[in-house]
Design goal:
The structure is a homodimer. The first copy, chain A, is of the alpha/beta class. The first copy, chain A, folds into two domains: about 150 residues, 3-Layer(aba) Sandwich (Rossmann fold), CATH 3.40.50.720; about 100 residues, ProC-like, C-terminal domain (N-(1-d-carboxylethyl)-l-norvaline Dehydrogenase, domain 2), CATH 1.10.1040. Helix content of chain A is about 45%, strand content about 15%. The first copy, chain A, contains nine helices and eight strands. Chain A has an eight-stranded mixed sheet with strand order 3-2-1-4-5-6-7-8. In chain A, β4, α3 and β5 form a beta-alpha-beta unit. The termini of chain A are far apart.
Amino acid sequence: MKTKLNIAIVGTGNLAWHLANAIDSSEHNLLQVLSRDQKRAEEFTQNLSAKGISRIDDIDANVEIIILALTDTALKGKYIAQFPKNAIMCHTSGSISMRVLKSHKKHGIFYPLQTFSKQKEVDFSNIPICLEASDNEVLQKLHVLANSLSKSIYEINSKQRKALHVAAVFACNFTNLMYDISSDICNDANLNFDILRPLIKETAAKVQNHFPEDVQTGPAKRNDGRVIEYHKKFLYDYPDYQEIYDLLTYEIQQKHEEL
Amino acid sequence: MKTKLNIAIVGTGNLAWHLANAIDSSEHNLLQVLSRDQKRAEEFTQNLSAKGISRIDDIDANVEIIILALTDTALKGKYIAQFPKNAIMCHTSGSISMRVLKSHKKHGIFYPLQTFSKQKEVDFSNIPICLEASDNEVLQKLHVLANSLSKSIYEINSKQRKALHVAAVFACNFTNLMYDISSDICNDANLNFDILRPLIKETAAKVQNHFPEDVQTGPAKRNDGRVIEYHKKFLYDYPDYQEIYDLLTYEIQQKHEEL
């Protein structure tokens, strides 16, 4: 199998941005980036070797893999069916089934599990890329591409991807809500959020080498009723946070009671 | 003011361990570590210049600051009143009032905000130390000690400390529960928790330079009803997690609706 692949990316969002830059820096060729808006496509590709295009018809005949880096709602079968049939069609979504790509005989999932913001650079080599494919030949090609971008490649099926997406909501989106609530409480008490930043960093650092269950701390884990009551009293002015405090405290107690 | 202070630590838990090592490596003198159990005190001080003791009466007359690194429940006024009255009495708790130290004219709070485990080394210089004191002279002495251990010193009052402790439960203990739930879901789907570790790290890294509110992502933030329904269906077998998913999703929607 030749190792230099010709790639096109569809989309100009945060994931498309990081993926385009990573592929452009790899041994593979990012030939084109497609956006509905020609100007946006050209701006996006300004510092890339890829060409910005806005029509599906303009997709280069040499493109072997088309990566749809689009929001879930944009991944419609009818839209996808318009793309050149000889290319391998991929999407990058955590929750959309592989079946949406069935208009193409060769298709697969190329799902990088990370939270992307355009303003924050990420080291793509540390991002886990989850692969699934219509057949073994496609899977091997996706491996070749993924291997040149990242050290962590996982083959996971659609059912596992669904579980992983839910898990990621807890590990990332809900975690960020916890940070947000803590920031809110600090703000009201005229405390600089800087005080909490090292704690947040260390909490994440701990589970890099341990399992979360083994490093749980706090009043709920210790079953310290006095402190819990004290906190609930404090949260009297924050009914939403009090409800969350109750539910999560109960959950920690349940989890660590059973042990 | 002379800068070399004589310190004693009471307690042999995780915080006592990290604090004792940090003070021992500073320009100050850690004279003694007190535990109810003489053997434990001696084991604890084996590689420290401090002496392990088990009786309050044995506290050196030169000790200027006694730091009670004890659990909240151990911080009783009657117990504290037995310590030499000429020393500055401090405790390290996030939730216990400074009044518990009132048997001593000179007293204060020395509260390092971090999650400590004996098995994991921490760089004390990055740990915020929150100070409060009975008077300005004590405050200055605590500053001298804190400054030699950490770059981040904050003067906060008891009311702020209470808020900070609740905030820390969200930022650390509840955050770790989110990790634990995600690990549980992965485990059931036969997925290696390693896939999520970079996401967890990046989520914490993002709020080191941004406010959590500004970097919130996910289906709740995007108000993506289809994905939310999909996830809730997935969580049907996990009623506890489904309830948490509902409540936290609602909270994110509320927060970002108002903006």
